[in-house]
Design a protein that fits this description.
signal, DUF3500, DUF3500 domain-containing protein, 12 helices
Length: about 350
């Protein structure tokens, strides 16, 4: 049995040696990626910024638009991976590459043939929306099973890296050469650490259901909203619990580039840690076979985690920005300014 990703490993090692960019300007790398494509692949990969496909996101196996690693030559694979690396923080890159490789493990867990393309580590799609490096807004997406990474830029600056979904099936590899591998171990273990730090009285506020919901509640909704009940407030935690809660939130934000993390951290400082709350549903036992769910809400951010399916060995996590998913109101206002009636009137003069 082999679980190696069927992309030349030299590509990952090559890209790993590239210094992680502290800049938010992804446009040069996106242009390089587009420039590496032939006419047919450009038609598959490129959409107008306002195309409805930009909001057509999901994290389940399904038919998708945009070329995949199957379509790329070595140069194109390298350009695609370089864009991916620059768009994420190091933990985000590590998790993304691990999610790719889990498809081979899942293929064998499900006893699928070696040529099966339902579980396929190459079946991840790249789409670009708008013209990177131009005078207008643009974005891009990387998506496949258990992965949906959406990035939106105001010309040269990332204004949104959400919705951001990462999942793991199996959550814990139970057999084979990769036995005990756990791609989202920190998200699981730190969530339980937060729960287990609570007193009985605190748990009565934080735990809103004995049974976990079947999946993340916001699913692939276009517009996410705060969920009820809200759980236990940050202000109701003692200093050690507050520190642990901050570390859990920071764990999720570390998936993003340092520059984008900084934007979110500025918002947290502005709105205050006191805006956050932690809620739990399901089992309090950290073990396969014990379904559980938690969520974090605050500073207009919503983070959901669940481990329910496949005998509670199948993790979903998502980060939603209630202000700026897909660029939010900021890019919408810019687009309306450039393309709305006032803009058209000026162009007609």
């Amino acid at each position: 049995m082999t679980y190696l990703l069927k992309i030349p490993l030299c590509l990952f090692s090559l890209l790993g040696s590239i210094a992680h960019s502290s800049s938010q300007d992804l446009a040069p790398l996106a242009k390089e990626f587009i420039g590496s494509l032939d006419t047919e692949l450009k038609e598959k990969a490129c959409f107008p910024f306002d195309h409805e496909e930009r909001f057509n996101w999901h994290f389940v196996p399904r038919e998708r638009k945009g070329p995949t690693f199957h379509d790329f030559n070595e140069q194109q694979k390298a350009a695609a991976l370089a864009l991916m690396h620059a768009s994420l923080g190091e933990p985000g890159v590590e998790r993304t590459e691990a999610i790719f490789t889990l498809e081979n493990i899942l293929r064998e867990v499900e006893n699928r043939p070696a040529n099966d393309d339902y579980r396929d580590p190459l079946n991840y799609h790249f789409s670009v929306f708008g013209n990177p490096g131009g005078t207008k807004e643009w974005g891009w997406r990387l998506e496949g099973h258990h992965l949906s990474l959406n990035f939106s830029s105001d010309r040269h600056t990332i204004v949104s890296s959400t919705p951001s979904f990462m999942g793991s099936n199996p959550a814990l590899v139970l057999s084979g050469p990769e036995m005990n591998r756990q791609v989202l171990a920190n998200e699981t273990n730190m969530g339980f650490a937060m729960l287990h730090s609570l007193t009985k009285t605190q748990k009565s506020t934080a735990i809103f259901a004995d049974k976990a919901p079947f999946d993340i509640i916001t699913s692939n909704d276009r517009n996410a909203q705060l969920l009820q009940p809200i759980g236990i407030q940050y202000s109701a935690l003692n200093p050690e619990q507050q520190k642990l809660f901050q570390e859990l939130i920071t764990l999720y934000l570390s998936r993003f580039t340092p520059a984008y993390q900084g934007l979110l951290q500025d918002r947290i400082i502005e709105q205050g840690w006191g805006s956050f709350a932690f809620a739990w549903a399901g089992s309090e036992i950290n073990s396969v076979g014990e379904p559980h769910y938690y969520r974090i809400q605050g500073a207009d951010l919503l983070i959901e985690y669940d481990n329910i399916q496949n005998n509670a060995n199948h993790v979903h996590t998502v980060i939603r920005d209630l202000q700026n998913d897909f660029g939010g109101d900021l890019l919408l206002s810019h687009y309306q300014k450039d393309h709305g009636p006032e803009s058209k009137e000026k162009q007609g003069k």
